[in-house]
Amino acid sequence: MAKRWYVIHTYSGYENKVKNDLEHRIETYGLEDQIVDIQIPTEEVTEVKDGGKRETKETKVFPGYVLVRMEVDDNSWAVVRNTPGVTGFVGIDGKPTPLRRSEYNKIMRRTNPAGVSAPKHTTTTTNLEPGMSVKVVSGPLADFDGSVSEVMPEAGKVKVMLTIFGRETPVELTLDQVVTII
After folding, report:
1. Contact 80, 89 (CB under 8 A)
2. Residue range 144-159: average pLDDT?
3. What percent of the chain has pLDDT over 70?
4. Most CB contacts within 10 A, which of 21, 49, 83, 93?
5. CB–CB of 5/67 below 8 Å?
6. What is the distance between the alpha carbons of residues 147 and 57, in angstroms, rounded to a whole number?
7. pLDDT tens digits, residue range 86-98?
8. Using CA atoms, how far apart are residues 67 and 31, in angstroms rounded to an integer?
9. What is the mean pLDDT of the chain?
10. Residue 20: which H helix or E strand, with range?
């Protein structure tokens, strides 16, 4: 029987504990040949804090879910299902439903069929919104005040309308070059 990817549901926040516990249970029950891989899909997110400080952290793409590559039979199913923190398999009528290869690739953000990871997807979040007043804190336009006209978190940039020589001028800045004015 082929080994396929399955999704197991866990208590949110217990994904890493479930992965560790499951790895120990696999070893204890001698199921290394049936349960071969465990993945927790994550992505790097960069947040821009007040003062323009960037903070990058890894977050779970699907909190409360863990992917397991396994050959399902009564024994392997019971070992996974009875792991502390696991609430069940994702499927129909309690029956585990395997992921299609395309679904797995999409979840893991993989494009190479050989299983080589694509570059990690990075998302930047910010609390800036159009219309907010900001002060430029670095670069040649430091100390200018303006208002946000556009936020481009995927590029890590913001477009700000600054009054330069009596005219409003749109200026594209990085998120760490501005701070909000309260």
Report:
1. yes
2. 87
3. 90
4. 83
5. yes
6. 28
7. 998 988 877 889 9
8. 16
9. 83
10. helix 15-29
